[in-house]
Amino acid sequence: MKKLLPTLLIVLSAATMPAIAQSGSTLPGQSGSTYVANASEGYYVKDGEAHYAWISTEGGEMQALRMLIPYQSGYPETVLYPEDVSEYGFLENRMRFVSATVETPEGERRLFLQEVQRVDDDTSILFLQKGVVPEDTWYSMEGGLVAEITTSDEPEPMWDYLLALSAASPNAGDNRSDIADVKLSQITVSNLLKNSIALPRRLRPSMIGRYYNGLVNGNEKMFPKNLFGVTVSAGAGSPIMNDTRTGGSTGRHVYNYGLSFSVGVFARFPFEEVLSFQPEVRYSRQVNNGSNIVGIGPDPYGRGTEFKNNSIRVPLMFRFTNTYSRKNIMPYAELGPVMDINFGDYVAWNAPEEHYINPSVETFTPGVAVGIGAEYYINSRQAAYLGLRMNYMFNTSRSHSYALRTFELVAGFSLFNY
Question: What predicted TM-score, i.e. pTM, was given to this entire model?
Answer without folding.
Answer: 0.64
